[in-house]
Amino acid sequence: MTTANEQEKRLKIRSPFNQSISFDMIDLESNILRNISYTGIGVDISEHGLGMISDYTFKKAQVVKLHLPLQEMDRPFSVFAEVMWSRPAKSHFRTGLRFLQLNISNFGIDI
Description:
Blueprint: H1 4-9, E1 15-16, E2 20-27, E3 34-45, E4 49-54, E5 63-68, E6 77-89, E7 92-99
Antiparallel strand pairs: 1-3, 2-3, 2-5, 3-4, 4-7, 5-6, 6-7
């Protein structure tokens, strides 16, 4: 659930986005450079960010590469995003992500 404080920080209102999302990131904590792939479920989306639920707990400021399934495209749309916050939500984690250097509306994608 979105708190009033989170809602005030957003630049745009988010729309529901109940889609399966895959994402990649680089594991730097183990001192081994390796690519890690996970999946999650989208909760909401806007031109500037995305809410997601996954089994993975993120750290603030971590950068991930999202692969978003969009109806307007025949393949996933990949975009980098920064973790703004992540916290437990029942048996999963709820994460707020901000798209980096991107405004999806520039690509003619309806949100």
